[in-house]
Design brief:
Number of strands of chain A: 0
Largest interface: A-B, 52 and 50 residues
Order of helices and strands of chain A: HHHHHHH
Number of strands of chain B: 12
Largest sheet of chain B: 6 strands, antiparallel, barrel
Strand content of chain B: 15-25%
Largest sheet of chain A: none
Distance between the termini of chain B: 69 Å
Shape of chain A: globular
Radius of gyration of chain A: 16 Å
Oligomer: heterodimer
Number of helices of chain B: 4
Structural class of chain B: alpha+beta
C-alpha cells in the first residue's frame, strides 16, 4: 500500500517532467495532427516550462528542461542544444518575473508571456540562422508562437485545476 | 534610480544562480552547458559526431515507442478518410486504365523506334535504372515539424546507407538522405524548404531548380526563364545536373488549382510512405 502511494506521489510530483518528455519525444504540435485544424499548432513545451517555472518551480527541475530540449533537437533534426538554450532562456525570464511579481494574477502572467516568448524565440532563430544552414517557414513559426501565447490561459486553467485537486493549494 | 537598478540585478542574479530542492543545477550552469554543446556540435569533432549518432539512435527508438498511440489515432483517421474516397478513386482508376491501355500501344511503338534509333546512333541500349543495390527500409517516424520536413528510417550505416542517396516511394523520388546513424537515417523530403533539385520540364529544354514549400501540393520552380510560362499537366524530371541525381526521374507534376492558376505537386506522397527504397543506382558517381 505504501509502495503504491509512494509511486503515486512520485508520479504526481514529476508529472510536468513526464509530460515535457512525452511532448518532446513525440514532437507534439497541438491540433496540427487534425487536418482541418492544422493552422492551430502551438508549442506545448514552452507553455509547460513557463507555467511550472513561474508557479511551481519545485515540480519541474531545470535539468529536465535541459534534457527535454536536447531530445527535442534530436527528434526534430536541428543542431544539438538550441531548444535547450531557448527553454532555459524562457525559464530565466519566467524565474525573473516570479521574483519581481508581488501579486500573482493570470492576466499579468499571460501578458508577461509575450516578452518571454519573444526572447526565447529570438535566441532560437538567432542561433539557427548563425549556427546552421537550415531554412525556415517563418510564417509557420510566427503562427506557432501566436497560438502558443493564445492557448496559454487554457493550460493555465488546466494545470491550476490539477494542482488544486492534487495538492489542495 | 540606483535602488531599482540594484533590485533588477538582485532579481537577475537570483534567477540565474538559485538552486532549490528540485533544482540540482543553476540556470547559469545549464545555459553555459547548452552554449558549449551548440559550439561542439557546430565544430563537428569526430568524437562528438559519433556520440551524436549513438544518441540519435537511442532517442529515435524511444520516440518511435512514445509516438505509437498518436500513430494509431492517425491511422484510424486515415482509414476512415480512405474509405470515403475509395469508391470515387476506383471509378477514376477504371477510366485511367482504359486510357492507359490505348496509350500503351503508342508507347511500345515509340520505345522500339527509340531503341533502334539509339542503336543507329551507337549510343547503346537504354539502361534500366539500376536498383539492384537498393535498400528497402521502413519509415519509423514521420512527425512533421515546422522546421524540417523529414522522415526517419530504420536503416543506417550498418546497411551501407550514405549521405546523399536517393529515396523512393512507389517508384517516385521523395527525398535524399541527409543524416546517417548506425541503425537509423534521416530523409530530407522534397517538400522541405531546404530541398533543391535540378529539374527539367516535360516537352521543353527548360532547366530549373525544384524547391519545396512545406506541402506536397506546393512545390516551386526557381531560376525559370522570364518568358517561360508553365503549362498544367507537365511532368517535371530530374535533370541530372550537378552530379547529384540521375537524369529522367519523375519528381513532380504541374496542375491547375481551384483558382485556375498553375501549381506544382509532388508525384509521391511523402506522408503516406511507409516502405521506401534507398538507392545509389540513381546516384551519379
Amino acid at each position: 500500500m505504501s509502495i503504491l502511494s509512494t509511486s503515486k506521489e512520485i508520479f504526481f510530483n514529476n508529472i510536468a517532467a513526464i509530460i515535457l518528455y512525452i511532448v518532446s519525444f513525440s514532437t507534439f504540435q497541438g491540433l496540427k495532427e487534425i487536418p482541418d485544424l492544422v493552422i492551430f499548432s502551438f508549442n506545448l513545451q514552452m507553455i509547460i516550462v513557463y507555467y511550472y517555472v513561474l508557479k511551481f518551480p519545485d515540480h519541474l527541475g531545470l535539468g529536465h528542461i535541459f534534457l527535454a530540449g536536447l531530445v527535442n533537437d534530436v527528434v526534430i533534426g536541428i543542431p544539438l542544444g538550441i531548444s535547450s538554450l531557448s527553454y532555459l532562456v524562457l525559464s530565466f525570464l519566467s524565474s525573473y518575473i516570479r521574483e519581481v511579481t508581488l501579486r500573482s494574477k493570470m492576466t499579468s502572467e499571460w501578458i508577461t508571456f509575450i516578452p518571454a516568448l519573444f526572447f526565447s524565440n529570438f535566441i532560437y532563430y538567432l542561433i539557427i540562422n548563425n549556427f546552421s544552414h537550415l531554412s525556415f517557414y517563418y510564417v509557420d513559426l510566427l503562427r506557432n508562437t501566436f497560438f502558443t501565447f493564445l492557448f496559454f490561459p487554457i493550460f493555465y486553467f488546466i494545470f491550476n485545476t490539477f494542482h488544486t485537486k492534487i495538492y489542495k493549494i | 534610480m540606483a535602488d531599482s537598478r540594484d533590485d533588477f540585478i538582485i532579481a537577475v542574479r537570483y534567477a540565474l544562480l538559485k538552486k532549490g530542492a528540485k533544482q540540482k543545477f543553476s540556470l547559469f550552469f545549464l545555459i553555459i552547458l547548452s552554449v558549449l554543446i551548440i559550439t561542439l556540435d557546430r565544430i563537428s569533432v569526430p568524437f562528438i559526431t559519433s556520440s551524436r549518432a549513438i544518441i540519435n539512435d537511442i532517442v529515435y527508438h524511444v520516440a518511435v515507442v512514445v509516438s505509437t498511440p498518436g500513430k494509431f489515432v492517425k491511422y484510424i483517421g486515415q482509414v476512415k478518410t480512405n474509405h470515403f474516397y475509395i469508391v470515387e478513386e476506383n471509378e477514376n482508376l477504371k477510366k485511367e486504365i482504359k486510357l492507359l491501355k490505348l496509350n500503351r500501344y503508342d508507347n511500345l511503338f515509340l520505345k522500339t523506334e527509340n531503341e533502334s534509333l539509339k542503336q543507329a546512333l551507337k549510343l547503346g541500349g537504354a539502361k534500366n535504372r539500376d536498383q539492384k543495390s537498393s535498400v528497402r527500409a521502413r519509415v519509423i517516424l514521420d512527425q512533421e515539424s515546422p522546421y524540417l520536413k523529414s522522415l526517419l528510417i530504420n536503416k543506417g550505416t550498418k546497411n551501407n546507407i550514405i549521405k546523399g542517396m536517393a529515396v523512393f516511394s512507389k517508384s517516385y523520388l521523395i527525398g535524399t538522405i541527409v543524416e546517417t546513424n548506425y541503425f537509423t537515417s534521416r530523409v530530407l523530403l522534397i517538400t522541405d524548404l531546404n530541398s533543391k533539385i535540378p529539374v527539367v520540364i516535360q516537352d521543353s529544354d527548360v532547366n530549373a531548380i525544384l524547391v519545396g514549400m512545406g506541402k506536397k501540393t506546393e512545390l516551386d520552380l526557381e531560376y525559370l526563364p522570364n518568358e517561360f510560362a508553365l503549362e498544367p499537366n507537365k511532368i517535371i524530371y530530374t535533370s541530372g545536373k550537378a552530379g547529384f541525381l540521375a537524369a529522367g526521374l519523375p519528381v513532380a507534376e504541374s496542375y491547375l488549382n481551384k483558382k485556375n492558376t498553375v501549381h506544382i505537386k509532388s508525384l509521391a506522397d511523402p506522408r503516406q510512405a511507409s516502405i521506401i527504397h534507398v538507392t545509389e543506382g540513381q546516384f551519379n558517381k
